[in-house]
Amino acid sequence: MTDERDSRADQLLGMHRRITRRDLIHGAGVAAAGLPLALSACRQEPGERFYPPTLTGMRGSHPGSFETGHALAREGREFGRGRDLNEEYDLVVVGGGISGLAAAYFYRQAHGESSRILILENHDDFGGHAKRNEFHQGDAMRLAWGGVFNLEYTEFSPVVHRLLDELGVDIERLRSRDDFNYGADGELGAATFFDAETYGRDALAPGFVLRHGDPARVLEQVDELPLSDESRASLRRFYMARKDVLAGQDEAGRTRYLRGTSYTEFLREHGELTDEAAELFVKTTHGYWGVGADSLSVAECEGAGLPMAHLLGGELTAGDGSVSGETTAFPDGNASVARLLVRSLIPDVTAGADNEDIVSAVFNYARLDEARSAVRLRLNSTAVEVAEEGGAVRVTYVQADEVMAVRARHAVLACYHSIVPFLVPDLSEAQSQAFRAQVKRPLLLTNVLLRNSEAADTLGVTGAYCPGRLHGAAWLVKGIETETYHHEWGDSGATVMQFWGAVDSGARGIDVRTQHRASRARLLEMTFEDFEREVRTVLDGMLGPAGFNAAEDILAITVNRWPHGYAYDYLDLWDPEWPPGEAPHEIARRPLGRIAFANSDAGAYAATQVAIDEAWRAVGELPG
Ligand SMILES: Cc1cc2nc3c(=O)[nH]c(=O)nc-3n(C[C@H](O)[C@H](O)[C@H](O)COP(=O)(O)OP(=O)(O)OC[C@H]3O[C@@H](n4cnc5c(N)ncnc54)[C@H](O)[C@@H]3O)c2cc1C
């Protein structure tokens, strides 16, 4: 009976509907450019030129990218010495993310333009987390980011500023065309979506915003929400209270409490919220931190814009749900930075000069790994050993089940740190443990191309926080333009709805690294169909009342799963204060002979500027 019901529900959502090629062929420009068209969960057609940004279905850590790494690290598989390719390089970089690409760039500057460099990357596309999803199923190309989005330019070091200047990135120009605000751009501002499965009925509440929200608007709407009477009353009490729950404590005592107590514990104890009401806040930090507010301290959540000041002797400030902070972005996020780096390293892959044309540049992937080029980028290649041998570094890697080896004067490991102990046999136990401490935070970003944004426009919203769903938030992607790419808010045609979040570990309250591992396992177990059903259900509940038809109005779905997502940054509740120079990432990143270590893990902070700074440091540490 349940199966029958489920399958009827699936039919209404369009789960078993094939998105046909005919539905997709609106992108005449794509066909003209010789680019492949994408299906809902597609691979490319034989004979089509390989162009991974247009692939839909399961992306991010896609099938084929991680199996060798898991065989090495989880199963202890030995790959042997492999076939010697007799290729000699000045530098081999492991990892083609921003950090690895920047390391190649800095190395070439330091050692000369003719330096021979090989970059090994285990995915079928470069950029690491900085990838783009390109959709051609609507009238015009629609871009979205598959991972890394913003440039936090106020945090840039002189090294980062210089690199981006040299690549032609004009921050002021990007800012002047960036009108995107994570779902807060609609007529009625940001919103919260209460879903039927969790809350009994679907309810979209525009203006009801917990993070950076306006308490008056929350109070206005609380009576309409599908929550228990006790929870609504507790929310009302919470927002109306004005007190200092730490009165009488000195500064040190206050700090100890704020850094030693989880935000949800604070809400229950001093905010007197019911469990149901406190739970509403948990996912507000998912996208921002990669962990829930239950695993973050009160002090950390203050920085994330969650309400607390009115219980600590201050006042609540009213916001509209906009995320403050000085950042800007390309329409495809920092994939443009990765593409600029690749264009600079291997100019034959595409033409162009700057900031503006990189967004619409079409890359010829066949040119990435050519013998005549000084810099080569080898995709689908997983390094399995990096070891010094006879005055050089021997790098063994696996591509399509074949084990091969190359040699280089130097190596920079710009891959995630947790795999390094399995690659480098000569590490000390202390350094190996330090690498293992970098347990990245799993993240999920699913882009869904909608036929149009009419239903959202009718409702006056551009997205919503979704406390009960897998992805904690969803928003329309519009309003970021360059000279060659246009998608303004007034355009109600095909548009991407981006679903964004961290996968709940289902293991609350335990050590946060263990939570991350549990969340990673869950993420990898989920099938494309699970994600598809999830986004169709949410879109149906959220936009259905305004005429959206999940069976008809979804043109493509791309799931970007990142089991190894944000770099682990130390958290108040889970990490001690390390003496200077003794934090795990500082021990891990110490160079070892001809091998140096980059990646944002080396800075213990998930940001593009950190990935670049760490590449700069690593290249500078290589011996002559
Ligand atoms: C979903 C998401 C959103 C983010 N948003 C932002 C943002 O808005 N702004 C921001 O500044 N930062 C953001 N970040 C942080 C992001 O991690 C950094 O900005 C930066 O892109 C990290 O680059 P990296 O090169 O250090 O690592 P990665 O991007 O992880 O690149 C490392 C590469 O090495 C590869 N690799 C691993 N092992 C091997 C091996 N054995 N052989 C070959 N290759 C290997 C990996 O698969 C990967 O492709 C985000 C991260 C995620 C996951």
Give the arrangement of secondary structure elements.
Layout lengths: L1 H12 L7 H4 L3 H5 L24 E4 L6 H7 L9 E12 L3 H14 L5 E4 L11 E4 L6 E4 L12 H10 L3 H6 L14 E4 L1 H4 L3 E4 L8 H7 L7 H12 L10 H10 L2 H7 L5 H5 L6 H4 L8 H6 L31 H11 L29 E4 L3 E8 L2 E8 L2 E12 L6 H4 L5 H8 L4 E10 L3 H6 L3 E3 L7 E5 L17 E7 L10 H14 L2 H16 L10 E13 L17 H5 L6 E3 L10 H14 L3
Parallel strand pairs: 1-16, 2-3, 2-11, 3-8, 11-17
Antiparallel strand pairs: 4-5, 6-7, 9-10, 10-11, 12-15, 12-16, 13-14, 14-15
Helix pairs in contact: 5-16, 5-23
The structure holds flavin-adenine dinucleotide.
Structure description:
There is one protein chain. The protein is an alpha/beta fold and 624 residues long. It folds into three domains: 2-63 and 132-154 and 175-184 and 440-566, no CATH class; 67-126 and 368-437 and 577-621, FAD/NAD(P)-binding domain, CATH 3.50.50.60; 216-311, no CATH class. Helix content is 31%, strand content 17%. Strands 2, 3, 8, 9, 10, 11 and 17 form a seven-stranded mixed β-sheet that branches. Strand 10 (392-399) and strand 11 (402-413) form a beta hairpin. Helix 5 (98-111) runs parallel beside helix 16 and helix 5 packs parallel to helix 23. The protein is globular. Mean pLDDT is 92; it is low at 20-43. The protein binds flavin-adenine dinucleotide. Flavin-adenine dinucleotide is lined by residues 69, 94-100, 120-123, 128-130, 147-150, 152, 382-383, 414-416, 419, 443, 445, 562, 565-566, 599-600, 606-608, 611.
